[in-house]
Amino acid sequence: MNILILPGDGIGPEIMAQAIRVLEKFKTEGLPITLTHGLLGGAAYDAHGHPYPDATQKLAHAADAIMLGCVGGPKYDTLPRAMRPEQGLLAIRKDLKLFANLRPAMLYPELAASSSLKPEVVAGLDIMIIRELTGDIYFGQPRGRRTNAVGEDEGYDTMHYARSEVERIARVGFETAMKRNKKLCSVDKANVLDTSILWREVVTEMGKSYPQVELSHMYVDNAAMQLVRAPKQFDVIVTGNIFGDILSDEASMLAGSIGMLPSASLDANGKGLYEPIHGSAPDIAGQNRANPIATILSMAMMMRYTFARADIAQRIETAVRSVLATGLRTGDIALPGEPVVGTQAMGDALVSAL
Ligand code: IPM
Ligand code: MG
After folding, report:
1. What is the model's pTM?
2. Which of 13, 30, 52, 194 has the lowest CB atom count within 10 Å?
3. What is the mean pLDDT of residues 117-128?
4. Could you give the domains of the chain?
5. Which ligand 1 atom minimizes the distance to the CA of 245?
6. Which residues does the annotation mark as catalytic?
7. Given ligand 1 and candidates 83, 86, 92, which is best to mutate, with the most ligand atoms within 8 Å of its CB?
Protein backbone atom coordinates (compact mmCIF):
# COMPACT_ATOMS: atom_id res chain seq x y z
CA MET A 1 0.00 0.00 0.00
CA ASN A 2 2.07 2.84 -1.35
CA ILE A 3 0.15 5.93 -0.22
CA LEU A 4 1.04 9.50 -1.12
CA ILE A 5 0.10 12.05 1.53
CA LEU A 6 -0.75 15.55 0.28
CA PRO A 7 -1.86 17.66 3.26
CA GLY A 8 -2.48 20.78 1.15
CA ASP A 9 -3.40 24.12 2.73
CA GLY A 10 -5.39 25.65 5.58
CA ILE A 11 -6.70 22.98 7.95
CA GLY A 12 -5.24 20.28 5.63
CA PRO A 13 -2.08 19.55 7.67
CA GLU A 14 -4.05 19.26 10.96
CA ILE A 15 -6.68 16.88 9.69
CA MET A 16 -4.11 14.85 7.76
CA ALA A 17 -2.01 14.44 10.91
CA GLN A 18 -4.95 12.60 12.48
CA ALA A 19 -5.45 10.45 9.39
CA ILE A 20 -1.76 9.50 9.48
CA ARG A 21 -2.14 8.37 13.08
CA VAL A 22 -4.85 5.98 11.96
CA LEU A 23 -2.63 4.68 9.16
CA GLU A 24 0.24 4.21 11.61
CA LYS A 25 -2.08 2.20 13.81
CA PHE A 26 -2.87 -0.18 10.93
CA LYS A 27 0.81 -0.38 10.11
CA THR A 28 1.59 -1.64 13.59
CA GLU A 29 -1.04 -4.33 12.98
CA GLY A 30 0.95 -5.50 9.97
CA LEU A 31 -0.66 -3.75 7.00
CA PRO A 32 2.05 -3.17 4.36
CA ILE A 33 1.70 0.61 4.37
CA THR A 34 4.40 2.87 2.93
CA LEU A 35 3.85 6.61 3.07
CA THR A 36 5.39 9.22 0.80
CA HIS A 37 4.78 12.93 1.30
CA GLY A 38 4.27 15.72 -1.20
CA LEU A 39 2.88 19.17 -1.76
CA LEU A 40 -0.18 20.31 -3.66
CA GLY A 41 -2.00 23.61 -3.96
CA GLY A 42 -0.81 26.75 -2.22
CA ALA A 43 1.82 24.88 -0.20
CA ALA A 44 3.29 23.60 -3.47
CA TYR A 45 3.17 27.05 -5.01
CA ASP A 46 5.06 28.46 -2.02
CA ALA A 47 7.78 25.79 -2.23
CA HIS A 48 8.03 25.17 -5.98
CA GLY A 49 6.23 28.03 -7.71
CA HIS A 50 3.50 25.72 -9.07
CA PRO A 51 0.33 24.24 -7.52
CA TYR A 52 1.03 20.78 -9.07
CA PRO A 53 4.82 20.61 -9.38
CA ASP A 54 6.77 17.90 -11.23
CA ALA A 55 7.98 16.36 -7.97
CA THR A 56 4.38 15.83 -6.82
CA GLN A 57 3.39 14.52 -10.23
CA LYS A 58 6.13 11.86 -10.06
CA LEU A 59 5.07 10.76 -6.59
CA ALA A 60 1.42 10.72 -7.65
CA HIS A 61 2.12 8.43 -10.59
CA ALA A 62 4.19 6.10 -8.43
CA ALA A 63 1.58 5.80 -5.64
CA ASP A 64 -1.27 3.26 -5.46
CA ALA A 65 -3.46 5.79 -3.73
CA ILE A 66 -3.34 9.40 -2.63
CA MET A 67 -4.73 10.99 0.52
CA LEU A 68 -5.38 14.69 0.08
CA GLY A 69 -6.33 17.25 2.72
CA CYS A 70 -7.67 20.37 1.03
CA VAL A 71 -6.30 23.29 -0.95
CA GLY A 72 -6.74 27.04 -1.21
CA GLY A 73 -6.57 30.18 0.89
CA PRO A 74 -7.04 33.93 0.68
CA LYS A 75 -3.28 34.41 0.35
CA TYR A 76 -3.46 32.90 -3.14
CA ASP A 77 -6.58 34.69 -4.39
CA THR A 78 -4.65 37.31 -6.32
CA LEU A 79 -2.43 34.84 -8.21
CA PRO A 80 -3.05 34.35 -11.93
CA ARG A 81 -5.60 31.57 -12.38
CA ALA A 82 -3.07 28.98 -13.60
CA MET A 83 -1.12 29.27 -10.33
CA ARG A 84 -4.04 29.10 -7.91
CA PRO A 85 -4.25 26.15 -5.51
CA GLU A 86 -7.54 24.94 -7.06
CA GLN A 87 -5.73 24.50 -10.37
CA GLY A 88 -3.39 22.04 -8.67
CA LEU A 89 -6.38 19.98 -7.62
CA LEU A 90 -7.97 20.09 -11.07
CA ALA A 91 -4.59 19.24 -12.65
CA ILE A 92 -3.96 16.15 -10.52
CA ARG A 93 -7.51 14.87 -11.18
CA LYS A 94 -7.03 15.32 -14.91
CA ASP A 95 -3.44 14.04 -15.00
CA LEU A 96 -4.34 10.80 -13.19
CA LYS A 97 -7.58 10.43 -15.22
CA LEU A 98 -9.68 10.28 -12.04
CA PHE A 99 -12.99 10.57 -13.85
CA ALA A 100 -15.25 8.98 -11.25
CA ASN A 101 -15.89 10.97 -8.09
CA LEU A 102 -17.86 9.12 -5.42
CA ARG A 103 -19.39 11.33 -2.77
CA PRO A 104 -21.53 9.46 -0.25
CA ALA A 105 -23.93 11.53 1.82
CA MET A 106 -24.83 9.52 4.89
CA LEU A 107 -26.41 10.72 8.04
CA TYR A 108 -25.06 9.04 11.13
CA PRO A 109 -28.07 8.58 13.43
CA GLU A 110 -26.02 10.19 16.22
CA LEU A 111 -25.99 13.44 14.19
CA ALA A 112 -29.66 13.55 13.20
CA ALA A 113 -30.13 16.75 15.19
CA SER A 114 -27.15 18.48 13.53
CA SER A 115 -28.74 18.47 10.10
CA SER A 116 -30.43 21.68 9.06
CA LEU A 117 -33.43 19.57 8.01
CA LYS A 118 -36.00 17.97 10.29
CA PRO A 119 -34.82 14.61 11.69
CA GLU A 120 -37.73 12.75 10.08
CA VAL A 121 -36.73 14.05 6.65
CA VAL A 122 -33.10 12.94 6.95
CA ALA A 123 -33.08 10.01 9.41
CA GLY A 124 -31.51 7.00 7.72
CA LEU A 125 -30.25 9.03 4.77
CA ASP A 126 -27.74 7.15 2.61
CA ILE A 127 -27.12 8.57 -0.86
CA MET A 128 -24.19 8.06 -3.20
CA ILE A 129 -23.50 10.95 -5.56
CA ILE A 130 -21.35 9.99 -8.52
CA ARG A 131 -19.87 13.05 -10.14
CA GLU A 132 -17.95 13.01 -13.43
CA LEU A 133 -14.68 14.73 -12.61
CA THR A 134 -12.46 15.28 -15.64
CA GLY A 135 -14.76 16.82 -18.23
CA ASP A 136 -17.64 19.28 -18.63
CA ILE A 137 -17.40 23.05 -18.37
CA TYR A 138 -14.51 22.64 -15.90
CA PHE A 139 -12.11 21.64 -18.68
CA GLY A 140 -13.95 22.56 -21.91
CA GLN A 141 -12.20 24.62 -24.54
CA PRO A 142 -12.45 27.30 -25.74
CA ARG A 143 -12.66 29.40 -22.64
CA GLY A 144 -11.33 32.75 -21.63
CA ARG A 145 -11.95 36.44 -21.92
CA ARG A 146 -12.62 38.41 -25.06
CA THR A 147 -14.16 41.56 -26.41
CA ASN A 148 -17.54 40.80 -27.90
CA ALA A 149 -19.15 42.14 -31.08
CA VAL A 150 -20.38 45.29 -29.38
CA GLY A 151 -17.00 45.98 -27.78
CA GLU A 152 -17.89 44.74 -24.31
CA ASP A 153 -15.56 42.64 -22.15
CA GLU A 154 -16.91 39.09 -21.71
CA GLY A 155 -15.94 35.81 -20.11
CA TYR A 156 -16.87 32.46 -21.67
CA ASP A 157 -16.55 28.74 -20.97
CA THR A 158 -17.56 25.67 -22.93
CA MET A 159 -19.62 22.75 -21.68
CA HIS A 160 -19.16 19.51 -23.56
CA TYR A 161 -19.21 15.76 -23.04
CA ALA A 162 -18.20 13.09 -25.52
CA ARG A 163 -20.29 9.93 -25.70
CA SER A 164 -17.43 7.81 -24.28
CA GLU A 165 -17.06 10.11 -21.27
CA VAL A 166 -20.76 9.79 -20.46
CA GLU A 167 -20.65 6.04 -21.00
CA ARG A 168 -17.82 5.40 -18.57
CA ILE A 169 -19.34 7.46 -15.75
CA ALA A 170 -22.82 6.07 -16.40
CA ARG A 171 -21.36 2.57 -16.09
CA VAL A 172 -19.95 3.47 -12.66
CA GLY A 173 -23.44 4.73 -11.76
CA PHE A 174 -25.19 1.53 -12.83
CA GLU A 175 -22.57 -0.74 -11.25
CA THR A 176 -22.79 1.18 -7.98
CA ALA A 177 -26.59 1.00 -8.03
CA MET A 178 -26.38 -2.78 -8.58
CA LYS A 179 -24.36 -3.09 -5.35
CA ARG A 180 -26.83 -0.92 -3.44
CA ASN A 181 -30.60 -0.50 -3.74
CA LYS A 182 -30.70 -0.67 -7.55
CA LYS A 183 -32.02 2.85 -8.04
CA LEU A 184 -30.16 5.30 -10.25
CA CYS A 185 -31.16 8.91 -10.86
CA SER A 186 -29.31 10.67 -13.67
CA VAL A 187 -29.26 14.44 -13.24
CA ASP A 188 -28.97 16.78 -16.22
CA LYS A 189 -30.45 19.90 -17.78
CA ALA A 190 -31.77 18.29 -20.94
CA ASN A 191 -34.57 20.85 -21.24
CA VAL A 192 -31.96 23.49 -22.07
CA LEU A 193 -28.50 22.08 -22.84
CA ASP A 194 -27.39 20.03 -25.86
CA THR A 195 -24.68 18.45 -23.71
CA SER A 196 -27.43 17.14 -21.45
CA ILE A 197 -29.52 15.83 -24.33
CA LEU A 198 -26.61 13.60 -25.33
CA TRP A 199 -26.02 12.70 -21.66
CA ARG A 200 -29.62 11.56 -21.25
CA GLU A 201 -29.57 9.56 -24.51
CA VAL A 202 -26.41 7.71 -23.50
CA VAL A 203 -27.60 6.94 -19.96
CA THR A 204 -30.99 5.75 -21.27
CA GLU A 205 -29.30 3.50 -23.82
CA MET A 206 -27.03 1.96 -21.18
CA GLY A 207 -30.01 1.41 -18.90
CA LYS A 208 -31.15 -1.32 -21.28
CA SER A 209 -28.14 -3.41 -20.19
CA TYR A 210 -29.15 -2.99 -16.53
CA PRO A 211 -32.79 -4.09 -16.46
CA GLN A 212 -32.67 -4.62 -12.67
CA VAL A 213 -31.77 -0.98 -12.07
CA GLU A 214 -34.69 1.41 -11.76
CA LEU A 215 -33.43 4.38 -13.80
CA SER A 216 -34.87 7.87 -13.57
CA HIS A 217 -33.85 11.24 -14.98
CA MET A 218 -34.16 14.56 -13.24
CA TYR A 219 -33.38 18.15 -14.18
CA VAL A 220 -30.71 19.62 -11.95
CA ASP A 221 -32.89 22.41 -10.59
CA ASN A 222 -35.52 19.90 -9.55
CA ALA A 223 -32.82 17.64 -8.08
CA ALA A 224 -31.59 20.55 -5.96
CA MET A 225 -35.12 21.00 -4.67
CA GLN A 226 -35.81 17.28 -4.14
CA LEU A 227 -32.59 16.91 -2.14
CA VAL A 228 -33.95 19.18 0.55
CA ARG A 229 -37.61 18.24 0.13
CA ALA A 230 -37.36 14.44 0.26
CA PRO A 231 -33.73 13.31 0.07
CA LYS A 232 -34.46 9.71 0.96
CA GLN A 233 -36.04 9.15 -2.48
CA PHE A 234 -32.47 8.90 -3.83
CA ASP A 235 -30.12 5.93 -3.78
CA VAL A 236 -27.43 6.63 -6.41
CA ILE A 237 -27.23 9.91 -8.34
CA VAL A 238 -25.01 10.19 -11.41
CA THR A 239 -24.27 13.58 -12.89
CA GLY A 240 -21.74 15.79 -14.65
CA ASN A 241 -18.89 17.72 -13.13
CA ILE A 242 -20.46 21.08 -12.37
CA PHE A 243 -23.89 19.80 -11.35
CA GLY A 244 -22.16 17.25 -9.10
CA ASP A 245 -20.00 19.94 -7.54
CA ILE A 246 -23.06 21.92 -6.51
CA LEU A 247 -25.36 19.05 -5.51
CA SER A 248 -22.69 17.36 -3.38
CA ASP A 249 -22.19 20.49 -1.29
CA GLU A 250 -25.93 20.71 -0.88
CA ALA A 251 -26.16 17.05 0.13
CA SER A 252 -23.42 17.52 2.72
CA MET A 253 -25.75 19.66 4.80
CA LEU A 254 -28.23 16.82 4.99
CA ALA A 255 -25.50 14.83 6.72
CA GLY A 256 -25.11 17.39 9.48
CA SER A 257 -21.83 18.97 8.43
CA ILE A 258 -19.56 19.24 5.44
CA GLY A 259 -16.90 18.17 7.93
CA MET A 260 -18.29 14.63 7.81
CA LEU A 261 -18.23 13.85 4.10
CA PRO A 262 -15.48 11.87 2.40
CA SER A 263 -14.87 11.33 -1.30
CA ALA A 264 -13.06 9.03 -3.67
CA SER A 265 -11.87 9.99 -7.14
CA LEU A 266 -11.08 6.90 -9.15
CA ASP A 267 -9.48 6.07 -12.47
CA ALA A 268 -10.46 3.10 -14.61
CA ASN A 269 -8.18 0.75 -12.64
CA GLY A 270 -9.13 1.57 -9.06
CA LYS A 271 -6.27 3.94 -8.38
CA GLY A 272 -7.70 6.76 -6.37
CA LEU A 273 -7.35 10.11 -4.74
CA TYR A 274 -9.21 10.39 -1.47
CA GLU A 275 -10.17 13.70 0.05
CA PRO A 276 -12.79 15.28 2.29
CA ILE A 277 -15.26 17.28 0.22
CA HIS A 278 -14.78 20.37 2.38
CA GLY A 279 -12.37 23.19 1.64
CA SER A 280 -9.35 24.50 3.51
CA ALA A 281 -11.33 26.60 6.05
CA PRO A 282 -8.64 29.29 6.41
CA ASP A 283 -10.67 31.00 9.14
CA ILE A 284 -10.02 28.15 11.57
CA ALA A 285 -6.67 26.88 10.20
CA GLY A 286 -4.00 26.14 12.79
CA GLN A 287 -6.44 26.41 15.70
CA ASN A 288 -7.05 22.72 16.41
CA ARG A 289 -10.75 23.21 15.63
CA ALA A 290 -11.27 21.33 12.37
CA ASN A 291 -13.16 18.06 12.17
CA PRO A 292 -10.83 15.27 10.96
CA ILE A 293 -13.68 12.79 10.36
CA ALA A 294 -14.22 13.50 6.65
CA THR A 295 -10.53 12.81 6.01
CA ILE A 296 -10.56 9.65 8.09
CA LEU A 297 -13.70 8.43 6.32
CA SER A 298 -11.93 9.17 3.02
CA MET A 299 -9.23 6.79 4.20
CA ALA A 300 -11.91 4.18 4.78
CA MET A 301 -12.98 4.66 1.16
CA MET A 302 -9.35 4.17 0.11
CA MET A 303 -9.21 0.85 1.93
CA ARG A 304 -12.46 -0.20 0.26
CA TYR A 305 -11.91 0.96 -3.32
CA THR A 306 -8.16 0.89 -3.99
CA PHE A 307 -7.04 -1.84 -1.61
CA ALA A 308 -10.21 -4.00 -1.58
CA ARG A 309 -10.10 -4.11 2.23
CA ALA A 310 -13.76 -3.56 3.07
CA ASP A 311 -13.05 -5.11 6.48
CA ILE A 312 -10.68 -2.29 7.39
CA ALA A 313 -12.99 0.33 5.90
CA GLN A 314 -15.73 -1.00 8.13
CA ARG A 315 -13.55 -0.88 11.21
CA ILE A 316 -12.82 2.78 10.55
CA GLU A 317 -16.49 3.58 9.97
CA THR A 318 -17.50 1.70 13.11
CA ALA A 319 -14.90 3.61 15.12
CA VAL A 320 -16.32 6.90 13.84
CA ARG A 321 -19.82 5.85 14.84
CA SER A 322 -18.78 4.73 18.28
CA VAL A 323 -16.92 7.99 18.92
CA LEU A 324 -19.96 9.99 17.82
CA ALA A 325 -22.12 7.82 20.07
CA THR A 326 -20.01 8.82 23.07
CA GLY A 327 -21.06 12.40 22.37
CA LEU A 328 -17.70 13.74 21.23
CA ARG A 329 -18.23 16.71 18.90
CA THR A 330 -16.03 19.12 17.00
CA GLY A 331 -17.51 22.60 16.57
CA ASP A 332 -19.10 21.91 13.18
CA ILE A 333 -21.27 19.05 14.47
CA ALA A 334 -21.99 20.33 17.98
CA LEU A 335 -25.44 21.62 18.83
CA PRO A 336 -25.62 25.07 20.42
CA GLY A 337 -24.37 24.79 24.00
CA GLU A 338 -22.82 21.34 23.56
CA PRO A 339 -19.18 20.98 24.66
CA VAL A 340 -16.69 20.92 21.80
CA VAL A 341 -13.42 19.02 21.38
CA GLY A 342 -10.47 19.83 19.14
CA THR A 343 -9.01 18.09 16.09
CA GLN A 344 -6.38 16.30 18.15
CA ALA A 345 -8.81 15.02 20.78
CA MET A 346 -11.13 13.71 18.07
CA GLY A 347 -8.12 11.91 16.56
CA ASP A 348 -7.19 10.47 19.98
CA ALA A 349 -10.70 9.12 20.42
CA LEU A 350 -10.77 7.58 16.95
CA VAL A 351 -7.43 5.86 17.41
CA SER A 352 -8.45 4.41 20.74
CA ALA A 353 -11.84 3.32 19.37
CA LEU A 354 -9.94 1.39 16.70
C1 IPM B 1 -14.67 20.23 -4.96
C2 IPM B 1 -14.17 21.64 -4.95
C3 IPM B 1 -13.31 21.87 -6.20
C4 IPM B 1 -14.20 21.65 -7.41
C5 IPM B 1 -12.63 23.23 -6.27
C6 IPM B 1 -11.78 23.49 -5.05
C7 IPM B 1 -11.80 23.38 -7.52
O8 IPM B 1 -15.23 22.54 -4.88
O9 IPM B 1 -13.85 19.29 -4.92
O10 IPM B 1 -15.88 20.04 -4.99
O11 IPM B 1 -14.89 22.58 -7.85
O12 IPM B 1 -14.21 20.53 -7.93
MG1 MG C 1 -17.10 21.63 -4.59
Report:
1. 0.94
2. 30
3. 91
4. 1-99+267-354 (3.40.718.10), 108-259 (3.40.718.10)
5. 10
6. 138, 189, 221, 245, 249
7. 86
